[in-house]
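Meet our chain:
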Amino acid sequence: MIGRKKVLIIAYHFPPLGGAGSLRSMKMAKYLPAYGWDPIVLTVKNPDWYYAHDDLLLKEMPAEAIIVRTFMLRSAWLYRFLNPLRIRELDRLLRRYVIHPDDQIGWLPFATRAAGALVRKGQIDAIYSTSAPLTSHLIAHHLCRRFGIPWMADFRDEWFENPDLPLPTAFHRRLHYRLEGRIVKTARQVIAAAPIFCRYLAKHCPGEPKFETITMGFDPDDYSDMPGVPSIQGDKFTLTFSGLFYGSFRPDNLLNALNTLIDEGNIQSHTVCLRFIGANSVHDLRERDKHGVCEFTGFIPHEQALHLAKQSDALLLLLSGERGRDVIPSKTFEYMALKKPVLALVPADGEVARIVRETGIGTVADFENIPEIMHSFLHIYRQWQDGSLRIAPDPGKIEAYNYINLARRLATFLDKMMF
């Protein structure tokens, strides 16, 4: 069609890989054609092992989308080549000291060659790369420098300031700082999923107006067959958490609070269920779950997870103060669309607390404050008991996080890059 433009989307995480990263790139590819941008997705054919696979997501791709999958030298093969005796400690040292900027560096030569062929074959008007992995940006950087195509770099997480990034020596710190600076300075537009990530990245280009926040979001199509808001769900108050808990982002304080409420006779254990949807292990909470209120589903496809969450009475957010003040998990936005009361155990002065209050989707209690958690949990539990548990969200505020509107913003920034 005359006047339409093509964007090359470089996304390692893309269906059939599941998870939040795949959803962001896939939903953008789904809705960009409505704003004049037809996507060509460059992704991986043989990814490293990943906990989440969801083949059903591919059915959402529009007819305008082209998906190109390329071979990758998997990190497991690199470790096997460098460590033929499979010494576990040596594997750990290789991962920490040698394989940088991430385990997906083996995708770089194959993706770069395939992308170059795509550029030469047909007109690519813009490049959009999304991380993690950081290797996606290295591929885009090469294309931008070689062909002069306008490039947008999208960061779902921070880079140099990421506490989970292995930077064991001064050399590694310099390497990543310089790579981050090179990416940020070369990209014409930089997008990040949280305001704090923009501030981190802008240290390389102070004062430049190239940094914008586009959060994660929700797709209204995912909820179109789930009308209405069911009231009381049976004889158990079911509070559901969707996703992974790890590191300091754990439900330990919630379980401590609930155990106390049960021990003191405020709640009967057989009337409560804490449901965890995702690849979490039952063993992680076995000691703390002394009343047997926890239920684990394991990883399930996204569509099934949404339906299970919809059947719950309330939804749970977890963010510790250690890192969670400025992080915005993608489940925040999916919870909005489910129109269920949210119990947000998060830093009271953080981004998620602000969003929960602004949109009117639930209650905030400080992650570290067990008495406050007890009070908030007991409050919504008693509302469930008497049938008054409901929310009055602000539809206008919520629609700002709709992927249709987020894709419109992304398309606007792509258009601006062309001038």
